[in-house]
Each structure stands twice: as structure tokens, then as C-alpha cells.
Amino acid sequence: MTTPAQRLAQLRNAMKQHGFDAWIIPTADPHLSEYLPEHWQTRAWLSGFTGSAGTLAVTVDDAALWADSRYWEQAETQLAGSGIHLEKIGLNGNHIDWLAEKLPAGATVGIAADMLSLAEKRRLQAAFANKKITLREGQDIINDFYSDRPALPCEKIYIHQARYTAETAREKLARVRAFMQEKGAIHHLISALDDIAWLTNLRGNDVSYNPVFLAHLLIDEQQAVLFVDETKLGKPEREQLAAANIRTAAYHELPQAIAELSGSLLLSPAKVAVSSLACLSENVKLIEHTNPSTLFKSVKSDSEIEHIRQAMIEDGVALCGFFAEFERKLANGEAMNELDISDMLTAHRSRRPGYISPSFGTIAGFNANGALPHYSATPEAHSQISGNGLLLIDSGAQYEGGTTDITRVVPVGTPSGEQKRDYTQVLKAHIALARAVFPENLPAPLLDAVCRMPLWQAQCEFGHGTGHGVGYFLNVHEGPQMISYRAMPQLETAMKSGMITSNEPGLYRSGKWGIRIENLIVNRPVAQPQETEFGTFLCFETVTLCPIDTRLIDTGLLTNEETAWLNNYHATVFEKLEPLTEGEAKAWLIERTRTI
Question: Contact, 87 vs 65, CB < 8 A?
């Protein structure tokens, strides 16, 4: 086996042979996915850094990896000895500026065309223009020495049962075509895997944690073509596609079909790879917009929300069983480590009706490890759960009726006063967002200040976003809404009734502990508005059902309104979960939902 340092030397040799002064390795695939099939996880393979996001840039004499604050400590450790240094996003600029400054005029930068979006290509070209640096996208030169690169996944595609879907694929396509007509588009290319799964009412298992399959979808005014490995489709799936007038073609045939287009093409430049458009005629007019399917699927129907509520009940029952088992083992002095947490959670969730899989890799961080927001325990590096401290557990599951994502922090041993103060400040922030009332269509990033105000008043801050959209038995992270003051408040991020978003403020003390409290919340119209002349106002319904540990609360820091919110939330949790729990899980639920 080669080391990252050896792979870096091999890359530089390939760069020399192909005439490149620098090579960029992003975290991307031809679908611009967040979670990648192993085939496209070249950044992790080359650098040794396994975080879910980051960009590696390599020149003939230097190499750097850009990672956000979630991964700074992890990256420092994993990059040690590789010859790659860490650049911190938010503090040290970005890889584009670094390359533009470091490279001489007239240099050539390369990147794999199937890992480069149209939007990113333009961004790179604009930044390099002043120094006449050439961007050359094409085949991935890493293939020259990545001899055991994993093959493309070939998991079977299956139908999302009709009882869980509010619309047929034909009805969804009709909505997309109406949008196309409004924009003057004859054709529409979709490469985003979750959009394709939503539109076709099909699901797959090509990407870990996300029930999606590798495909592109090309839609015109009458029919649509799904470019997919056709061996993944059984007779029922083919019949469902045919009913929506969707025919199939081989996955690799997309460029040929693109070459035959004329007229106009609607696409999202941030969600289509350059490789997909390599054969596009210059005569085709590009109409650029967020995929309409992205906007449509972000708004869940009333029936879908009801299925999501039921999934949250099943998840809540599983969590009661998990926490009861965890606390029993802790009280009995049984040895447990961070790796055990994921196995225990999966065991309890897999017993619930409709369970499919985890929705992401469980984050279980004890004490200092909890201060790493996307920490991942490994067999080589993990902590025992013993003594005194805080255990942060961020986990989720895919159910046929919904996707869950929840974070809880529990005490191990005796918590300190400082830990209780930090925990309560995060709880206050969580409650502030949960209680928010705001105008319909407000850009989601603007809500971040509402959540962070209690933390800011205590001069505390956290580096990640406060909330992300969540799919419906789809990706645990989906757009277009994002609650983060670092995001642009664009029209596409407007908050609409039916959207599901996470509420997850945190506080992290490096080397000590981390705290995050996360529930999922649904945008709903205010039930009994006091005023109507100022437009429609929305509020949040919290749908996650699991007690928030009151043993860590400094009740003196809570207002009467905050205490009332928590007690009302726990009353709802008890009402929904108690009939389905028994034994130690019921006893745990009763204890953890007591009024404070």
C-alpha cells in the first residue's frame, strides 16, 4: 500500500507528463453530490483526509488542503507527514486565490471534468484571467496511477411505495415542464441524484446513507430520458418509468444525447458537471436556474408531513430504547466506547417499522472529541466512555416515510457548572429558533441571528450553520434553504410552508467538550394569526421526538417562556412515545420527560 506522500509524488509525475503546473482535486462527482460513491473519493484517497468536504490543490513544489472549521483538528492529524498542509476556510482564503498567487503567468491548471461544475469552471477562469493562467479540464490524470480505483456502484433500484408518495412521476414532471415553459426552455438536464429520485419516485443504494442511484435525467416537452445502468432496473421499475413516459438509456450515453440538442437547455450551473456538457453545441441557448425539482421537493405535502411525523415516532421509540440501554450499562460500569454507540443505535432503529438505514455516519464524541463537530470515531482512534464528561451523539435514520437527524448531549458521571452553563446557553438558542415567527418567503439565512442571539449575548459562537434542509426519505442535507448568516439570502432560500429544516446550534470548547442540540422543524402557517393585513406568517413545528436531557440544565438561566417551551415539548414527546414503549425504555422516557 502506498502512503499519501507517495501518492502525491505520483501525482506530480503525472502532472509533469501531461503538462500541468497544478492540479485541483475537489470533493465532487458528476452529480455534484455531498456524499460520494467510492469511485470519486479521490481527494480522500490521495491526501488521507477523510472529512466529507474539502479541496486539495497541488503544485510542483507545494500542496494544500482547504477544510472548514468542522474538520480543522481532524485534518491536522490526518495530513501529518503527507507533505500537504492545512489551509483553514474562513481564515486563510481559498484554493483559487492561492493558486492564482503562487503560479506564474501563463501556467496551466488541470482538474477532472467529471468533478467540476459549470459554475466552478467559470469561477476558476475568472480568477485566473489576470495572469493568463489556463484552466484545462478533461480526463482525471490520477487514473494513471490509481490502479485499484473502485468501480461504479451497481445496486438495484426500487420503487418508493405509492402510499408514501403524494404525486406520481407523471404529475411531478408536468410541474417541471410548466416551469420549463415559463422560462422558455425546450430541454432540461438534471444531474442531482436526489432530484432524480424524487421526480421518478424511485430509490437506490449507490451512495452511502442516501437512498439514491447514479443517473442523469434529460427532459423535453413530451418525454424524458433516464441515463442509468439499466441492469439496476427490474420489471416494476421499468413499468413505473414507462407510465411517466420516461425511457431509459445507458448511463454513459448522456454526452451523445447532449450533442444532439438544439434550441434551449435549462440547467443549474452548480449542479451539472462540465463533462456532461462537453459535446453541447454552441448554438444551444443555456437558461440557468436552480432546478425546479429542487424547489418543489423542498416543500413537503401534508400527507408527506404526516408520514414524517410517524417516522419521528418510530425513531423516538428507538432512541428511548437506546438511551435506556446506554444508561443501564453506564450505571453497571460496563465498558463502552464511541464505536459502540453507532452499533447500539442501529440495533434499536432496525427493529422499527419502515427502517431502511442510517441517514449519515453516527457522530459520537466524548469530551474533547465532541468539540469536533464532524468527528468520526475509528477503530484506530476512539475514546472510552468513562469518568466524568459530556457525550455528544449526532445520528439519524432513513425510513420509508421520512429522514431523521437528531443530536443529543448526555452527562457521564458528574457534569461541571461550566458544562451546565454552556449546555443551557445552547438550549436557549435552540428554543429561540423553535419559537420564532416570521414572514412567509423570508430568506432562510436571515433567521440565523434569531437563534444565535442568546449565545451572542454571552459572547459565544459556533462555526457551522444553524440549519439545513432535510429530504423526504432522501438526502439528510438538501436545499435550497439554509439557516446560516454566512450564506447569501437569495430568493431560492425563501422559507415556505412545508419545508423541513434542522435546528442545531452548538458550542465547542477545543480540547474539552462539545455541545449541540438538534431537532427537525417544519414550517407551518401560524394557526390563529392575530393580524392578517401584513401577510402570511410562519412558525415552526418541532417534529423530532426525544427528551432533551434536563440533568445538564442550569434552570436559573432559563426564562419562564423557555421553561414552558421545554415542558410543553416534553409533554408532547411523552404523549407520542409512551404508548409504544415498554420496560426500561418506558421508565427512561418517564424520567427524562419530568417537568422542571
Answer: yes
Nearest CA-CA partner of 133 in 163, 172, 156, 101: 101
Q: Rounded CA gap, 391 and 380, in Å?
A: 19
**∠ Cα 25 275 181 (to 5°):** 125
DSSP 510-563: TTTEEEE-BEEEEEEE-SS-S--TT--EEEEEE-------GGG--GGGS-HHHH
Contact indicator for 153, 206 with CB cutoff of 8 Å: yes
Centre a 10 Å sphere on the Cβ of residue 309 and count the other Cβ atoms it contains. Answer: 16
Residue 258: φ, ψ to 5° = -65, -35
State the sign of the Cα–Cα–Cα–Cα dihedral 367, 372, 377, 380: negative
Please, what is the Cα angle at 393 between 44 and 404, to 5 degrees? Answer: 85
> Residue 84's Cα: distance from chain center in Å?
26
Q: Cα Rg for the chain, rounded, in angstroms? A: 25
At residue 338, the 3 state secondary structure works out as helix
* 45, β-bridge pairs: none
> For residues 7 and 11, what is the distance between their CA atoms, to the nearest angstrom?
6
C-alpha to C-alpha distance for 23 and 18, rounded to whole angstroms: 11
Let me know how long the chain is.
596
- Report the predicted TM-score, pTM, of the whole model to 2 decimal places: 0.94
3-state secondary structure at position 260 = coil
CA atoms of 233 and 155, how far apart (whole Å): 10
* Contact between 437 and 476 (Cβ < 8 Å): no
**Residue 410 to residue 329: CA distance in whole angstroms:** 14
Q: What is the pLDDT along the chain (596 residues), one digit of tens a residue?
A: 789 999 999 999 999 999 999 999 999 999 999 999 999 999 999 999 998 899 999 999 999 999 987 788 788 989 999 999 999 987 878 999 999 999 999 999 999 999 999 999 999 999 999 999 999 999 999 999 999 999 999 999 999 999 999 999 999 999 999 999 999 999 999 999 999 999 999 999 999 999 999 999 999 999 999 999 999 999 999 999 999 999 999 999 999 999 999 999 999 999 999 999 999 999 999 999 999 999 999 999 999 999 999 999 999 999 999 999 999 999 999 999 999 999 999 999 999 999 999 999 999 999 999 998 778 878 888 899 999 999 999 999 999 999 999 999 999 999 999 999 999 999 999 999 999 999 999 999 999 999 999 999 999 999 899 999 999 999 999 999 999 999 999 899 999 999 999 999 999 999 999 999 999 999 999 998 888 889 999 999 999 999 999 999 999 999 999 999 999 999 999 999 999 999 999 999 999 999 99
Cα angle at 561 between 560 and 563, to 5 degrees?
Answer: 65
Which residues are bridge partners to 518 per DSSP? 407
At 590, list the grid cell.
Answer: 418517564
User: 23, 70, 22: which is closest to 49 by C-alpha?
Assistant: 70
Q: Is 188 left (phi over 0), alpha (psi -120 to 50) or beta?
A: beta
Q: Which of 138, 152, 105, 132 is nearest to 24 (CA)?
A: 138
> CA–CA separation, 267 vs 185, rounded Å?
9
